Amino acid sequence: MTTPVSTSQTEPQRNWKDYFTFNTDHKVIGIQYLVTSFIFYLIGGALAAAIRTELATPESDFVDPEVYNQLFTVHGTVMIFLWIVPAGAGLANYLIPLMIGAKDMAFPRLNAVAFWLIPVGGLLLMASFFIEAPQAGWTSYPPLSLTMGQVGEEIWILSVLILGTSSILGAINFLATIIKMRIPEMGWFDMPLFCWSMVATAIMVLLSTPVLAAALIMLSFDLLVGTSFFDPNGGGDPVVYQHMFWFYSHPAVYIMILPFFGVISDILPVHARKPIFGYRAIALSSLAISFLSLIVWAHHMFTTGTPAWLRIFFMATTMAVAIPTGIKVFGWCATIWGGKLRLNSAMLFGIGFVSSFVIGGLSGVMLASTPFDLHAHDTYFVVGHFHYVLFGGSVLGLFGAIYHWFPKMTGRYMNEFWGKVHFWLTLIGLNITFLPMHELGLEGMNRRIAIYDAEFQPLNVVATLGSYLLAVSTFPFMINVVWAIFKGQPASGNPWKALTLEWQTSSPPLIENFEEEPVLWCGPYDYGIDVPPEDQQSVQELLSEVKTDMGR
Questions:
Q1: What is the pLDDT of residues 142-159, one digit of tens each?
Q2: Structure pTM?
C-alpha cells in the first residue's frame, strides 16, 4: 500500500505531435507501442479474414494457393511479432515505472530506439506484398524456405531480425528498471505481479531470441551465399534449424502470454475487492514458467525422428509447465471466489481470459502427450489450441488491461455499455471460430492448405462466420476508444480504489510521474497498515473505502 500522492500539479499538456516523434517519456512510448501494434492487429485480422474466406469452400476460389501461402505467412508473423509481443512491451513501458515509483525507464533513449524498430520492421514486412511476399509459413522451415522465393524470404528474415532486436533492447531496459529503480521501500515481494511477469518475460527474451537470430542469419547465408547449414543437398540438416527455431519460438508463446498473466493478476483483485490469493506462489510461478519454457522446445518435433528417450524427456517437461500455470489459475479462481465482483468490462475480459486460457491449456496438455501429438500434429487441432491460448488468452488479457488502465492513461473512463458489447462479441466470436478447429483436426484436416476435402466444409463455414463476428467485434472497441478520449467521463487519480502505486498519482500521470517520491508502507495486495502519523488520515480514508467495498 502506498500513501496517496498529491495531484495538485496541473495535468501535463501533450501535443499530438509528441506521439510521432523520438520521445523518451516512457508513457508516450508505451502509447506509441500500443497504437502501432493495434494498427498491425487490424492488418493481421484482415489477412485472417481473407484466409477464412478462402477456407469457406473446399476449392481455391477466393485467392490462388500461392497468395494463400503469402497470407498465412504474413498473418502469423504480424500477429506474433507486431501485435502481441509489442503490445505487451507497450503496457510494460507505460506501467513499470509507475508501479515501482520511478520517473522513467532506466535507458530512455534505448527505449525509444526499441519502439522505432517496430514500425521499421513492420513496414518492411508489409512492403513485401509489393515486391515478393514470403510464403514458407511463419516457421520458414528449410528446405521449403530455400525454394519458395529468395527475395520474399530475405525480406521476412530481415524484418524478424529487426523486430527481435527491438525485443532484446526492451528486455534489457525492463530488467534494469525493475532491478535498480524501485523506490527504497519496495522489496521484491512488494512489487505488483505484473512486474514479476515482466522479469520472467525479459529473461526468456534475452536467453532465447539470440538463438532465433543465429538461425535466421544462417538461413540467410544458405539463401544468399550458398552455404549448407540447413540445405540437405549440400549436407546440411534442416532439423537443426527446427531445434534453433523452436528454442525461441516455444518460449515465445510464454513471452506473449506471461505479461498478460501479470495483467490478470493485477486486475482481478481490484475488481473482486479481495487481495490476490497466493501472491508469492503466483510471483515465483512466473520464474518457474520462464525456466521450464526453455527446456520443452522439441515437443514441436515429435514427428521429426526424435529418439524415443528424448521424446519422453520433452513430454515430461512440457507437462510440468502445467504445474506453475495451474498455480496461477488456482490463485485467480480463489481470488474471485467469494469476492464482491464488479462485472465491468475489465473484469469481464479478465474472467474471459481465465476461462479461454484454461481451454487452450488443457488442449496443450493433450498435445504434450507424444502418442496423441503424433496423430494431431500439423492438423487444425493445433491451430485451435494455440489460438485459444494466444487470442483467448493474450488478446483478451490485453483488452482487459486497456479497459482497466485507460482511465490512468487518459484521465477518462471508457463507456461500459460498449465495452460489454465488445466483450460478448469477442468471446462468442472466438469460440465459434476456434472451437470447430479442434474437431476438424481430430477428423484429419491438415493446416496450411487452401484446398481440402469437401467433408470438412461445414465446420469451416462455421469457423469462417465466427471470424467475421470477431472482425465486427473490433468496431465497438475502436468507437469506444475515440469517444472516451474526447467525451468520456473524467476519472480521478484512483477510480478503482486500487492499492498499487500507479494509482497514487494523477490521471493521466504527471510528466515525471509523481509530484514527490512516493513511499511504500506495505505490500501491494496487503490490507494491513503501518504509516507515520502525518499520513494516517489520508491512507485510512482510502483503506476505509476499500474495506467498505469488500464488505468488511
A1: 999 999 889 999 999 999
A2: 0.91
